[in-house]
Amino acid sequence: MAKAAALILAGAVSKGAFEAGVLSVLAAHSETIPIRRVVGASSGALNGAVYAAGIRVGAERAAAAALEQLWEESASLHNAVKLDLRDLLELRGVGTADRILPLMRRAVTGLPSGEPRAVELCILLARLAGSIGQIAHEPATTYEYVDRFSEADFSNEAGLERVFQAALGSAAFPVLFAPVDVPGVGFCADGGAVNNTPIRVALGESDIERIIVVTAQPRVANHGDAEPTGIALVSLLADMLVNERLYRDLRTAEGVNETLRKLAALAKDPASSVVIEQVRALLGWKPLEIVQIRPELPLAGSAFHGFIDAQARREYVAAGRAAAEAALAALPPAV
To answer: 3-class DSSP state for residue 178?
Structure first.
């Protein structure tokens, strides 16, 4: 039986084109690798919104193809950023992401209808007003907000607009884009700033057994010894933001998996099995297969380079396909 999977699409600004290539390969394996939950942050939220819409109508391949075409042909700086002098003068950003909205609408409305599938979409937002959470039963402020959407939201125009606005809010990279007023949430900025690879969100309360993490960052970064300046420095800081949280999350996940394997080995009798199951419940985790799809080598250019170089975007898409094929080929055969 195929393992139900959750898909995490991390942010990477213009290198989000890498994820479009990955999705084209995953779509071709949708029967053996069924995606039940999509989690997106930053540019990953834009990709995730379109791909989740494709899953809902049973048109994953068409959705992935639409994303590849969008990234390769339309993801220029002109189509990504609508210059706004007021935002610029008030130092809110260079402009807005409004021009991305019709591109997403076109990608989704052009999808063919197939066999409907259940899907949940989780979009990570940095809520500028913050929210009140709790630490040890004491109130505390958190800026991470998860906007959740079910298959019902993909079945009508109003629901789709809410999905699109949340995705735009998650992709509002600071300085480049002004914050987005997301309906029901408030003004939000780049979700990758608070959690770019939310593994626990991807797990949720369901039968998820496999987590697929997609990021345009290689496992081992090589930024050289020279001190970066200007756009290179901004790009490096963005990479650091992504990689450090990803490093911690994956290390924690693998550590918990190892602990659970050791606990399972201790189960010598029914009584100890019950105790171990209680410990697992307290941890709020279960054994997971974690699949990472990422390039072996750093993608060329800064995080913003693809906005001005269409050839670079095409190379990012091709790199995504290659990385996905390699990762899926390494998976154990389905039982």
So the answer is: coil
- Beta strand 120-135 pairing with 35-41: parallel
CA dist 94 and 82 (Å) reads: 8
Closest CA to 71 of 325, 324, 322, 311: 311
CA distances from 125 to 148, 192, 207, 278, 324 (A): 11, 8, 25, 33, 26
* Pick from 103, 95, 228, 247: nearest CA to 173: 95
Secondary structure of residue 4 in the 3-state scheme: coil
Tell me, yes or no, if the pTM score tops 0.70: yes
Whole-angstrom CA distances from 113 to 5, 47, 101, 121 are 22, 19, 22, 19
What does the alpha-carbon distance between residue 71 and residue 317 come to, in Å, rounded to a whole number?
8
The residue ranking higher by pLDDT, 121 or 268, is 121
Residue 271: predicted pLDDT: 65
Q: What is the pLDDT of residue 86?
A: 78
Task: Looking at mean pLDDT, say which of 52-61, 226-235, 286-295 comes out highest.
Answer: 52-61
| Nearest C-alpha neighbor of 147 from the set 172, 183, 177 | 183
Mean pLDDT computed over every residue of the chain: 85
Look up residue 254 and give its DSSP letter. H
The token pair that represents 171 in the structure block = 């992709």
């995705």: which residue's tokens?
Answer: 167
